[in-house]
Amino acid sequence: MIVTVIGLGTFGAKTATRLFEKGAEVIAIDNDSELVDKIKDRVTHAVCIDVTDEKSVRSTNISDVDVAIIAIGDNIETSILAVAMLRKLGVGKIIARATNQLHEHVLREIGASEILKVEEEMGEIVSSKIVAPHVLQRYNFAAGYSIVELKLGKKFEGKTLVESQIRQNYSLNIVALQKRVPFITEDGKSAFRVEINDSPLPMDVIEADDVVVLVGSEKNFDRLFSELSET
């Protein structure tokens, strides 16, 4: 897969390097030579150009990429012009960062395939950590629905999945259990290894250190979080 990331601030640089680490061919672009120089050894190719200049953008063969990510957040005008340019040059999938609702609306109107609302999502993450500190990870996969990794605490410790009545009381489904299993190393020392049970059975027991993976609606998660915070 060939991906271009335009805008190498904190968000863009992190996105570019992580994609490269995961095996993608990454073309990183910015008009700031210092940012380009910082990332050049951690991506496939780093280019310093003005993304609003059609001739410069064409020189990168950008029409051949599978996905273009517009990570520009501090210059809305440049972000919009970059999306318009990529659409003109025939890039099929354009993922663009939006900093507010108007910005999002304009990006969609000119052809962005997908919108990233980084600030909004970070606000959700921060507020979730404050209100529900037992939550380890939260993934929104559809409007109003999430996959959540959390520790259930004392309220459910030692109970089987049936006894927990999480499905009956909260309409949430447990889809996996992550357990820390003790073992003895070759040199005789005590250690733990992580085992994931992705097909938990009704009689499986929830232990204190288990990470439980649940799926369901956000309103039902909020009910569970509220009760967990009381214990």
Entry keywords:
about 230 residues, alpha/beta, Rossmann fold, Alpha-Beta Plaits, six-stranded parallel beta sheet, five-stranded antiparallel beta sheet, 9 helices, 11 strands, elongated
CATH top level label of the largest domain: Alpha Beta
Q: Roughly how many Å is the radius of gyration?
A: 23 Å
Task: Count up the helices.
Answer: 9
Through-space gap between termini: 47 Å
Walk me through what this model shows.
This protein folds into two domains: 2-118, Rossmann fold; 129-229, Regulator of K+ conductance, C-terminal domain (Alpha-Beta Plaits, 2-Layer Sandwich). Strand 4, helix 4 (76-88) and strand 5 (93-97) form a beta-alpha-beta unit. The strands form two sheets. The protein has a six-stranded parallel sheet with strand order 3-2-1-4-5-6, sandwiched between helices. 35% of the residues lie in helices and 29% in strands. The model has no long low-confidence stretch (mean pLDDT 87). The termini are far apart. It has 231 residues and is α/β, with parallel strands linked by helices. It has nine helices and eleven strands. The radius of gyration is 23 Å and the shape is elongated.
SSE diagram, text form:
Elements: E1 2-6, H1 10-21, E2 25-30, H2 33-39, E3 45-48, H3 54-58, E4 67-70, H4 76-88, E5 93-97, H5 101-109, E6 114-116, H6 118-131, E7 135-142, E8 145-150, H7 161-164, H8 166-170, E9 173-184, E10 190-197, E11 211-217, H9 218-229
Parallel strand pairs: 1-2, 1-4, 2-3, 4-5, 5-6
Antiparallel strand pairs: 7-8, 8-11, 9-10, 9-11
